Predict the structure.
Amino acid sequence: MTRQRNSPLEDGVHCTTVRVRFGDTDPYGIVYFVSYFRYCHRAIEEYLRACGLRPEETFKNVQEGFGLPIVEAWCRFRRPSKYGELLRMETQIQEMRAKAIIFRFEFYPETGRELLAEGTANLVAIGPDWRGRPLPERLKIALTGIE
Amino acid sequence: MTRQRNSPLEDGVHCTTVRVRFGDTDPYGIVYFVSYFRYCHRAIEEYLRACGLRPEETFKNVQEGFGLPIVEAWCRFRRPSKYGELLRMETQIQEMRAKAIIFRFEFYPETGRELLAEGTANLVAIGPDWRGRPLPERLKIALTGIE
Amino acid sequence: MTRQRNSPLEDGVHCTTVRVRFGDTDPYGIVYFVSYFRYCHRAIEEYLRACGLRPEETFKNVQEGFGLPIVEAWCRFRRPSKYGELLRMETQIQEMRAKAIIFRFEFYPETGRELLAEGTANLVAIGPDWRGRPLPERLKIALTGIE
Amino acid sequence: MTRQRNSPLEDGVHCTTVRVRFGDTDPYGIVYFVSYFRYCHRAIEEYLRACGLRPEETFKNVQEGFGLPIVEAWCRFRRPSKYGELLRMETQIQEMRAKAIIFRFEFYPETGRELLAEGTANLVAIGPDWRGRPLPERLKIALTGIE
């Protein structure tokens, strides 16, 4: 039996765009660092959707008895972005463990390859008791295309 | 039997302050109008606390079978405030109906009587079916001091 | 000379969608009323873009010496929306005065005609001294298609 | 000439509290990870104020020709906090370099020593050209009490 990669994403990278909105900047018109983390969560949501997963049933799923909280997040901000700009987010799974997923994010101008910011977010699978548990099989298959 | 006013608040007005934070402004350093609505909600929370009510059991209370969603909100912005400023919020109940409460907010500089912004928020009591219901008696008493 | 209507928008109504994001809800999964005002600002931005105006040169324009702050905003929330839902925003200019624009917003489910929320936002034109001034002619033409 | 430590903060640790507000949670009532980064910025602001520095003249100072953007941020979330809770933030300078400051944050329940979350934020001094420059002497003295 051979493992087969069937990811719905080309090369495992998901691309989406985000517009810098009026409330996303600091008082000087530069994207507030906190907004990048908000964009990262949005990137995860779109990544999940691209894999056929509904975010609202994935971050917490009472029926299936699991949650998927973010337990660690990191970003480095290389160049400032301004109000009104359109950013391209490239999202991929950096690492998939038995009980955890690490997403990696890169931010670029809409067109261009200059890295504006990069980051990671670690999600762990927990049960109703908030203790770690293996990632639901359904999720792993949807995210990796590997059965 | 005489009705007695026992409000925990002097003249029914609650005062609290809010600092304009880094993420609260627009790209030009002026408070983003949306932030005022966030401040209004905070003012309601502090008003409730001053009346001995826990917000986390008041906006939604599964045990007692009620919710208290905001169904209407309005603000007028008279003068701009800037990043770093300390605002004084004066909050009062403008009207108490059988099924609804209307809060009124006024924003001033920390010291000074120049009205910076004003607004209202209408909350209605609903049951678990999201239909209107009378305000819980416990709430009315706590908010007005009238038994 | 006849006045000619050339609005870039069909019937003067601009449609766009907004996804309810993870950070947009209250602790009970329902859209936080403050988020609607954020959506309203985004709707104005998209309206401006559809008329060929760049928001980042329209809300404040140092070169041309004007600003366009929001001086009043109002929303009524009719039915709750939940995390993950896609909302359709219909935006139009309710009134255009010499020195002010009033935008009107309506929120619907992505498909469907059930009004979820509605609101207005009043913008006034000001000069560098923060005093009212007539709307720049360029803006009026772009927004109405009337020369 | 002896160097003298005169920090305005006892042991160099600044304590402040933050209330988990209605808009700070995820749809399940747990603090949204993005909110912690917002709290971190607030902790920096209060740290600066405790050292006699006005944040609105410290993150960007046109007169003195410097800015102090956050170029990296990280948080680990150990235990969930809920809507309405009061968190104690302990903030300190983890490292002070020639051109950079690294702040460290710890979040605890209002009373109690259980670590809820921890994080860091790296700030670098830049000139008007956005290139790195040494930290202004005035800042270093105010933050460390060392002349």
User: Anything to note?
Assistant: Residues 91 and 133 of chain A are 25 Å apart (CA to CA). Confidence is low (pLDDT under 50) at residues 1-5 of chain A. The first helix of chain A runs from residue 33 to 50.
